[in-house]
Amino acid sequence: xxxxxxGSGFVWARESTRTLVVTAAHVVExxxxxxxxxxxxxxxxxxxxxxxxxxxVAVLAAPAIAGLTPLxxxxxxxxxxxxALTVLGYPLGDLLIxxxxxxxxxxxxxxxxxxxxxxxxxxxxNPGSSGAPVLDEQGQVVGMAVGAIPxxxxxxxxxxxxxxxxxxxxxxxxxxxx
Length: 178
What we know:
Layout: E1 10-14, E2 18-23, E3 33-37, E4 43-52, E5 57-63, E6 84-89, E7 101-113, E8 116-121, E9 133-135, E10 141-148, E11 151-152, E12 155-156, E13 161-165, H1 166-177
Antiparallel strand pairs: 1-2, 2-5, 3-4, 4-5, 6-7, 6-9, 7-8, 8-13, 9-10, 10-13, 11-12
């Protein structure tokens, strides 16, 4: 949560003194501190450690939060088109408080925008789901939900949703940790 709204995120690493959380950069745009809400409902202050607007990736640093486990990470390199993908997020923010929403779809395409790899999927991604992990069939993170294209000019679009590839997220984490 920020003073401007909220999104989703996931634990990247749990270190002795801090927990690193990944979310979409546009979720924390214009702020330096946020509140991380853990799965048990507890609120934890966090700071924006790194933000990469081109990749739409942000890294948050919160105090060490007990009971949270980083999600296992996979790779997009071997994912075939048509591979099943699952998005775990919190769409519509406070309107749907509780457990995360699970949406499923497939890897529709790989797209590159300004040299950054995104996964195109028909799994629903709604406001509030930005920053949510996108999982492969083994439950490994292969991307992070960043948004949808509801219109192509004057033509309505359906199921044209995007996730930044895990390899792009890893690049931002390397920079954040150095």
